[in-house]
Amino acid sequence: MFGGTFDPVHTGHLLFAEAAREQAGLSCVLFMPAHIQPFKQGESISPDDDRIRMLRLATAENPYFDVTTIETDKGGVSYTIDSLRKLRSVYKGKRLCFIVAADMFVNIGKWKKADKLLSEFDFIVGKRPGCDSEAVKKAEKKFRKEYGARIEFIENPQIEISSTEIRRRLVTGESIRYFVPVSVRRYLLVRNKVGEKRFEHTKRVIDLASEMAERFGVSRYKAALAALLHDYCKDPAGGVENDINHGDMAAAAAASDFYIYDEDILNAIRYHTTGRAGMSELECIIFLADTVEPGRTYNSITQLRETCLDDLNKGTYTVLVELKKYLRQKGLTVSADTEAAIKYLAKG
């Protein structure tokens, strides 16, 4: 179990966890994001949902890594002893270890029910740059003697990266490349650029697009990536600036800023507001997910969403026709791509 705020998860966390897994012979490392850390009460942190999503992105490619939401689901202040005891009831018969950096290890005596924590669970302790080695030795001796603590020290890479520094760089516009995994960097840059309200919409599109991709046998990775970037160039203030061509702009930015060259992903981003003749399944999914995501509240949305989840082509055609009707009612121009898409699907 590897606990922390993870705001955001970064390369240092991942290297530390992998070193612990390998050297201690662990079958799995569970990343356990806290809802509220006891010693950080009152501090402003990113929403649970964002931190969990970034952890899942960061750990997706390691079969030995997983994420538990036991502390965020519970809410309130997160106490390690309570969480580990609950997890012990889930993983019966398993050896549970708590992974901790040396600077936190020396202060465990201040944690809730520290005596029980140290006597009931194993500890894997990693080095931290600048940590007082004598203080670590003193704490180890004390914990072993007083609580019979089982402690294993590992040799982990000494990389000084902090989540605080990453957040500062995001604010100032400095690069966070290599501080975090590529997937997390994309997530952070999009969130930072589009604004809170727009990003909530983006997350709903990601979830629906991922669900639809799985249902229709399309790559979930591609669907989630296209959904993440589809509104990257939308006016964050909610105005009409870039409203007409923000799909084209986002596709160009996906290539120039994020080095994405998969034409299917780029086209899904490019045509997500208009559709076009001969749309791929991925293009249909992003177009529909953007239009019928759960945050939309217009009439017949529930029925439209059910149609989209049942039949991809029928859903796309139905939504395109509704889009054309809406634009005409508002006195707005219907895109030539939308007209072409309707005609193409009507033939099928």
Task: Describe the protein in words.
The chain is elongated. With 348 residues, it is mainly alpha-helical. The protein contains 17 helices and 6 strands. A 3-stranded parallel beta sheet has the order 1-2-3. The chain has a 3-stranded parallel beta sheet with strand order 4-5-6, sandwiched between helices. It has 2 domains: 164 residues, Rossmann fold (3-Layer(aba) Sandwich), CATH 3.40.50; 153 residues, Hypothetical protein af1432 (Orthogonal Bundle).
Quick synopsis:
56% of the residues lie in helices and 7% in strands. It has 348 residues and is mainly alpha-helical. The protein has a three-stranded parallel β-sheet with strand order 1-2-3.
Topology:
Layout (H helix, E strand, L loop, with lengths): L1 E3 L6 H14 L4 E5 L14 H12 L5 E3 L2 H5 L5 H11 L6 E5 H4 L8 H7 L1 E5 L6 H15 L3 E3 L9 H10 L9 H13 L1 H21 L3 H10 L16 H13 L4 H8 L10 H12 L8 H10 L1 H18 L6 H12 L1
Parallel strand pairs: 1-2, 2-3, 4-5, 5-6
Helix pairs in contact: 2-9, 9-10, 10-11, 10-14, 11-13, 11-14, 12-13, 13-14, 14-16, 15-16, 16-17
Biggest sheet character: 3 strands, parallel
The low-confidence parts are: none
> Number of DSSP helices?
17
The Cα radius of gyration reads 24 Å
CATH topology of the largest domain: Rossmann fold
